[in-house]
Structure to design on (99 residues):
């Protein structure tokens, strides 16, 4: 699955549809918190209304759940585990794209 979203002041946003012209989207889909006192830079992300694209079925679906992500040194990405609302665990990799 894949998706695009933006983060502003630890709040996650995504496009609401084709008429959503705000840069990076205006629909709130979750929040992010920095976890302190860990060995690696860690972020916990909660998705509440995350629209993702399933490459296998070519359909879009909304999911919710939490991810714990660790910054990969010297790269513009983070990776970790996403646990969806049904308890399924997914490997998650996010990469940074500058607009």
């Amino acid at each position: 699955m894949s998706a695009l979203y933006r983060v502003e002041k630890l709040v996650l946003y995504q496009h609401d549809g084709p008429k959503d012209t705000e840069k990076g989207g205006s629909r709130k889909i979750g929040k992010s918190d920095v976890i302190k006192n860990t060995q690696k830079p860690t972020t916990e992300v909660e998705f509440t209304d995350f629209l993702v694209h399933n490459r296998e079925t070519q359909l879009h679906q909304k999911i919710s759940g939490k991810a714990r992500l660790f910054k990969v040194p010297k790269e513009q990405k983070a990776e970790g585990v996403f646990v969806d609302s049904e308890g399924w665990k997914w490997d998650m990799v996010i990469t940074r794209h500058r607009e």
About this structure: The beta strands are 6-8, 11-14, 27-35, 42-54, 59-71, 77-84, 89-95.
